[in-house]
Amino acid sequence: GPESGAYLYGKRTFRRRGIILNNGIDLSKYKFDSEMRERKRRELGVENKLVVGHVGRLNYIKNHKFLLDVFAELKKINADSVLLIVGEGEEKDAIEEKARRLGIENSVILTGVRDDVYDLLQAMDVFVFPSLKEGLPVTLIEAQATKLPCLISDTVSRYAKQNDNVEYASLSLPASEWAKHAQRLASIDRESVSVEKLIKNYDINETAKQLEKIYDKMLIYLIIVLLFCAIYPLVPRKHIKWLFIALVLALSIMAFFAVPKDTDDLYNYFRTLAKLRRGGFKCLRRMIENGEEHW
User: Fold this and answer.
1) How far apart are CA 232 and CA 259, in angstroms?
2) Which has more confidence, 96 or 134?
3) Which of 149, 154, 252, 281 has a Cα at 20 to 30 A from 193?
4) Could you count the other beta carbons within 10 Å of the beta carbon of residue 152?
5) Measured between alpha carbons, how far is 104 from 71 in angstroms, rounded to an integer?
């Protein structure tokens, strides 16, 4: 996301030159399917349960111990609840031990690594993601692709929210408050949720088109420069300046057709375009001042 770009390249540089290409997902696999939901719930034996879900590696950063605290509080609100944790990792034994201490071990399902995550997401009622530190997790995007309500910690990037049924909560809040939020989110009509924003930003077909545009633009610039290099030795010296003028105009026209649709980016675009033109004409001015015989 933008935070990573600003961290790696600096805010100013990334704001002027950065391009964000999201990790494309085959959303057709994650489309909400009520029949698949019922089938998976039968397989798991949770047909009449409130299923709290989580997908991620079982490590300290994912904060599963707090997740168990939240679920223990949710059990007090809704006794017919189960916690479905998908993933494997070094914290597995600690998670099982804490579940026993809380007396909820019979309501916690640890599936391990699965190759049918998209189907398991269908079976869940609410996705809880209380990470201590996180960038932009793909599992959260996948959960939203199934229209699953999500309750996530405020350490997760704000750009992770694509659907309206996603809420952030502070880790400073007690587990009981998280449990109340999760219970409320689970009651939202899942099928009424729009995923238009998510499709626009993360559908693999859309991201492929964005990548094609980037490559097309780079290729055209490269062709223009290579063509200039090929023609340069063949042009009489007295006409060299006109060749440079043609190059500057060609690059300017290319830049013009790359005007961003987002008006927030127009200022940076025109500033960059002005620099391109100033640089090109400054080069021409030096050529003219030095005299054509210099070439």
Assistant:
1) 29
2) 96
3) 154
4) 22
5) 9
Q: Has residue 271 got a pLDDT over 70?
A: no
User: pLDDT tens digit string along 173-210?
Assistant: 999 999 999 999 999 999 899 999 999 889 988 888 88
Closest CA to 84 of 25, 28, 185, 74: 74
Give CA separation, 55 vs 23, 250, 254, in Å. Answer: 18, 50, 45
Residues forming beta bridges with residue 126, ordered by sequence position: 52
Residue type, 197: K
Tokens of 84: 């479905």
Give the global pTM: 0.74
Measure the CA–CA gap between 131 and 91, rounded to whole angstroms: 14
**Using an 8 Å Cβ cutoff, are 245 and 274 in contact?**
no
Contact 195, 165 (CB under 8 A): no
Beta carbons within 8 Å of 11's beta carbon, 6+ residues apart? none
Q: What SS3 class is residue 203? A: strand
Q: Which residue has the tokens 């021409």?
A: 284
DSSP class per residue in 25-88:
B-GGGTS--HHHHHHHHHHHT-TTSEEEEEES--SGGGTHHHHHHHHHHHHHH-SSEEEEEEB-
